[in-house]
Amino acid sequence: MCGIFGFVSEDKLNVADIIIDGLKRLEYRGYDSSGLAAVINSKIYSRKQSGRVFELEKVISRSIKSSVAMGHTRWATHGKPTNKNAHPHCDCTGRIHLVHNGIIENHKELKSKLEKRGHIFKSDTDTEVMAHLIEEFSKKYSFEESVRLTLESVVGAYALVIISADAPDTMIVAKKSSPLLVGFAENSKFVASDVSAILPYARRVVYLHDGEFAVITPSDFRVATLDRKKVFRSQELIEQSPVDLAVHGFLSAKDEARKNNFPHFMLKEIYEEPEAVENAIRGRLIVKDGLAKLGGLESVEDKMKRLNRLIISACGTAYLAGLTGEYMLEEYGGMPVEVEYASELRYKKQLFDARTALLSISQSGETADTLEALKEAKRKGVLNLGLVNVVGSSIARETNAGVYNHAGPEVSVASTKAFVSQLAVLSLLTLFVGRQRGMSLVMGKRIASELSTLPEKMRRVLKEAPNIKKIARKYHKHGHFFYLGRKYNYPVALEGALKLKEVSYIHAEGYGAGEMKHGPIAMIDKNFPSMIIAPSDSVYEKVVSNIQEIKARNGKVIAIATEGNKEISKIADDVVYIPKMLEMLTPILSASPLHLFAYYVGVMRGYDVDKPRNLAKSVTVE
Ligand code: M6R
């Protein structure tokens, strides 16, 4: 993963101010350590520090100015998150420094060859090998040629930025599989892992393609392929609002104020869930005709009519939204659906035919597993659709057509409002394909009209917060949890468990409630509580039986049930009520209490819920 930011300028810029600001905008990509390097009087100034970017801020000089500088915020892959493993890494002479996002797969064999030639390694990373390789080639070749030969020698993924004290005006950048772009301002050029870090300085950008490298000086910008072919890339104008700017990641210190009066982004974003759904459905519902209008799919509408299979590919919470979508699209949309972890799909034999489409779901639009699975499917000629939050992100750009969920910036690492907005778009998609293939006008109108009532009902659910907080207080010291649901609420149970794990580090398992009796029930005792989603729907009676099975074994039960259900309060230990809703849409109501519960438990256990340990907002390594 990791975030990269740098500049090359005709002027001498303040390194600390600009690089730290860029790194803070990219911190969502990793926050276990960070570092920066700048060319100053033909020498390299470099500092790195474990921990968040503000820790780096404490150890750097605030006054240094430079025309060539770069920084890195890390999410550890090879080597613990220590000072020595933080980037930048350098060669033996300390004159070549580089920052890297990605994984070098053949680093072990390269390292052992270099060690035999006398190179001394200072870190446990895969990255460092490239600094020593450039050093080795530099004995015979120019800086540019040494970088090119190094890139030819490595196997794996990289976004790379390299500077050398011997070429003090030059920065070389390269890309393969990991994102990298260059922004152009009047006197300066900026490089970054994503556009959010560049937009405060420049709106004209060039996205490097895989297998390309660029040489950047104050007066020049040249792109070439590894086999030395010149490439001309025209600049794209990014038209994003300040709100879009923040979508990609953590905001700068100044922007922290945008938490409004919420103690954490996670809580703020849970409270934004109704608005996120409102934004997802705005202008897309024609209730009187029972139709969904999805402008992003108009160009492929006819192709979609002919589909007989939809494969949904995603990771984490987006995958769980996809699982819920499978129930919706099959039952109401009449579309056969398979949902795959993107990380598995890429390596499976993909048996696609002309009537199959792939739908990639991603909040960030930058998740490497999802992006790579999509590229693989693209090579096979499949229709590629996207459901993405971040406008202009890699997945949004790679797909043939798609729908933005318009959830707004999601800053907290734990995804909350993006999940409910993904569900809202999947409901719209269900209506869209359903009406293409036999869904009646009456049913279309019913779904459209229920969808339009969601935001108001979600706001009612949030009024349950004090009750949920009280329940969290009662259970926050438990070490284990089951999350159970059936049919539409089975994926939501998985989402509840994932959220609790992420922000409270409690062991939580999600199961289909009916699956409990096939093994997991052995673990139930008075110390193993279960959160059970039990709205009054087509499987309610079955779920009640599952609750009874748990109660008979002294298990504690927290139930999420439909308003007016008195029966459940007699069997469950604690109840959170949600309004009555069309079964297909209940997951959008049952998600918020689970998000709130995880939030409160995480806070009560004293954790930084916005930036949980070991995680990153956007996972850009496979
Ligand atoms: O940006 P994406 O939606 O592609 O991210 C996918 C997962 O990495 C993400 O949902 C992750 O599981 C979240 N931390 C869940 O809260």
Automatic annotation (TrEMBL):
GO terms for molecular function: carbohydrate derivative binding; glutamine-fructose-6-phosphate transaminase (isomerizing) activity. It comes from the Bacteria. It is an enzyme of class 2 (transferase). One of its GO terms (cellular component) is cytosol. Transmembrane segments: none annotated. It holds the Pfam family SIS. It catalyses: D-fructose 6-phosphate + L-glutamine = D-glucosamine 6-phosphate + L-glutamate. The keyword Transmembrane helix does not apply. Residues 2-219 form the Glutamine amidotransferase type-2 domain. The active site is at C2, K617. It is found in: Cytoplasm. HAMAP family: GlmS. Catalyzes the first step in hexosamine metabolism, converting fructose-6P into glucosamine-6P using glutamine as a nitrogen source. Homodimer. NCBIfam families: glmS, PRK00331.1. This is Glutamine--fructose-6-phosphate aminotransferase [isomerizing]. It comes from Candidatus Yanofskybacteria bacterium RIFCSPLOWO2_01_FULL_42_49.
